[in-house]
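Incident log entry.

Two folding requests arrived from the same account within the same minute. Monitoring flagged them as a possible duplicate submission, but the sequences differ. Recording both here for audit purposes.

Request one:
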Amino acid sequence: MSQMQPEIRRMEPGDAEAVSALERKLFSQPWSSQGFLDALSCGNAIFLVAETGEGLAGYCGMYCALDEGEITNVAVAENMRNHGIGRLLVERLLAEACKAGIHKVLLEVRVSNHGAIRLYEKLGFAICGVRRGFYEKPREDGYVMSLSQ
C-alpha cells in the first residue's frame, strides 16, 4: 500500500483508541474510545478506517435504521488531507450502506466546512435543511444534507 493510497476496511475494536486519538485532534467535542466500541457493538452501524503506510489516515461511520442511514463521523488526519481519502471513505461507506439495504443517507455538516460540503455535493448529497445552533465549541449552524441511492 502506498503512502497516499489507503487500505479501507471495517473498523475493529482494536482501532478504537487510535480513532479516538485522531478524533481528539480534530474535533472540539470528540468521541471517546468507549463511544466507538459502543457503536461497533450495537449491530446497526457501519464504521470504516483508512490506513496508509504511516498509520491511521481517517475514518467514517454511519448508524442504520430500516432503509435509512445517518453518517455520524467523517475525519481525515490533517497531514493526509487533499489526497482523496475522505472521498474514498464516504464512497465505500455508501457502497456498504447500499449492500445493507440503505436507500436514504443523511448527515449534518458545519455551515463553514466548505470543503466537506463540496465533497458531499460531488457525491450527490443536497442540502435539505438547517439546524440552528446545532454545533457547539464554537456555536454554529449545521446543514442537513441527504442522498437517495
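Request two (distinct sequence, not a duplicate):
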Amino acid sequence: MQTRVKMCGFTQADDVAFAVRAGVNAIGVIAYEPSPRCAQMEQAAKIRAVVPPFVSLVLVTVDMDAKQHRKWIQALQPDCLQFHGRESEQDCLSFALPYIKSLRMRDDIDLDANITAYRSAGAILLDTYVSGTVGGTGEMFDWTRAANFDDKPIILAGGLDSGNVSNAIEIAKPYAVDISSSLEKEPGKKDHRKVLEFMSRVCDTNCTNV
C-alpha cells in the first residue's frame, strides 16, 4: 500500500500551491483560534483556489459550534472535515461531509472502542497525547500502537519529520501520515525545502514497499 501524505497548518495560499506541486494528497487548514497555525477565514477562498481536483482540502476544528462551522465550510468549501475535540459521532455527521476523527493516544485509551464509536469516519487520525493541548506538539508516541487496524484507514500524526517518517511507515503501515510543525520556518508558514525533503522520503519509502 502506498502511504499518503496530509500536510496541515497552512495559512498561506502560496505554501499550499507549493505543497500541491510537491505531491501532497491532502491539505489541512486549521480553524481553531488558540492554535498558532489558525488560518483566517479571509484567506479561505485563496486557499481553495489553489487546491486542484484529486487533492483533498480538509477543515480541521476543535469543538467548534455549528454556526461557526457552517461559516467556515461555506468559505473554504472543504472536501473533508477533521474533528480534534470531544465531538460525538452525531456531531461529526451533522455537516453531511466525509470526516476524519482524531484520537489522542493516552496510555489508557481503548482504540478498538473509540474506532467503533466513530464507525462512520472515513479515517481515524492518531496523535500524541500531551496534557493541555489538542495537537501540533511535535512529539511522538509509540508507533507500534497504530499498527494492525485493518478495518479502518489510520492516519499517523505526532512528531513526524524527514528523519523518522520512513521508520514510522515501516512500523505502523498507516494509510497516511499527517505532518505540520516540523515543516515550518515559523508557525503557519512552510519551509519549502523541508516540504520537498519530506515528500522525497515518503516517496522513496513507498517505492521500496511496492
